[in-house]
Design goal:
The protein is built from eleven helices and three strands. It is mainly alpha-helical.
């Protein structure tokens, strides 16, 4: 019993019941609010959806579905490898970059753990994917679905939040327009959290951290670590809520939007999502040190 109390799972003894109580109180509170005439008038005036900029396209293009699926895959392993970097005090192996190839630097390469190598490699793929995403987002006009342009987005977001909390969902019409709470959430993820993760990650990167020394007082390394970790927690919380609502508010239709780029009720989107889930599970199982070692292809890789 004493050993269990010292384990990381002991927190679940009180955390899970506390979470259930908080959720129950939130649901009952939202339902009570919706029974008030003033709140009913508020929801009628602000049903939860703000108008889009003129010319915003309807529906989702194929490139967005591919971007979404690839980003989900990369983010899963960025979070996993980042957590391993933070929690493992004794890595399985260390990796050193080959400085005799096509890309060379003046200084000696920095030795890093294999987990950090994976994290940085995935970060690079995530950045490349993000650059393509940003470019296509503005070229195709899809930015209008993610960027708030009217002040009524805020009361509509409050309205949508109360409707969600009361378990009486706001009207879903994601094919043509997200509700206001979704817009603010996606804007925060794409234009605030993602750049913040990149900036703090660069501040912490081995080999680059020394270049930030002149800015140490304004942007200390300890602050970058705290912000980077808080951003990871935000991403995890967003993913949990996002996936839960995808399945709770019309799984087939939502999965068709995201994976099959259609507005129907077929099982195609679910099938593609299931295939991507199988791929994630296989990659998760395969991401072992001996496999990563062969992928890293380093000039110096030492087991400990």
């Amino acid at each position: 019993m004493a050993d269990f109390r010292k384990s990381r799972w002991f927190a679940l003894v009180w955390a899970v019941p506390a979470a259930i109580v908080l959720v129950s109180v939130a649901v009952l509170g939202a339902q009570w609010l919706r029974s008030l005439p003033a709140m009913q008038s508020f929801i009628t005036q602000f049903p939860g959806q703000s108008s889009l900029p003129a010319g915003t396209p309807v529906g989702f293009p194929a490139w967005l579905a591919w971007q979404h699926g690839l980003n989900a895959f990369i983010m899963l392993f960025i979070i996993r490898s980042g957590w391993q970097v933070r929690t493992l005090t004794r890595p399985d192996a260390y990796w050193t970059r080959n400085n005799k190839g096509m890309i060379r630097t003046k200084g000696s390469p920095v030795r890093i753990s294999l987990n950090l190598w994976l994290h940085l490699s995935l970060d690079t793929l995530w950045i490349i994917n993000g650059v393509v995403f940003y470019a296509l987002l503005f070229v195709t006009g899809q930015w209008g679905r993610l960027v708030p342009v009217h002040w009524d987005i805020f009361p509509n977001a409050i309205s949508a939040g109360i409707q969600y909390a009361s378990l009486n969902w706001p009207v879903e019409n994601g094919w043509s327009n997200y509700n206001a709470l979704q817009v603010l959430s996606y804007f925060l993820v794409v234009f605030i959290a993602a750049p913040l993760a990149l900036i703090t990650g660069l501040r912490m990167s081995p080999g680059l951290a020394a270049h930030f020394n002149p800015l140490h007082r304004a942007f200390p390394l300890s602050a970058a670590r705290k912000i980077h970790f808080a951003t990871m927690v935000f991403f995890v919380a967003f993913i949990v809520v996002h996936v839960t609502l995808v399945f709770a508010t019309g799984a087939l239709n939502n999965l068709n939007h995201m994976y099959a780029v259609n507005n129907g009720q077929s099982w195609l989107g679910f099938a593609i999502f299931s295939a991507s889930l199988v791929l994630m599970i296989v990659a998760w199982i395969a991401a072992r040190p001996f496999v990563l070692r062969s992928i890293a292809g380093s000039s110096y890789l030492r087991w400990v």
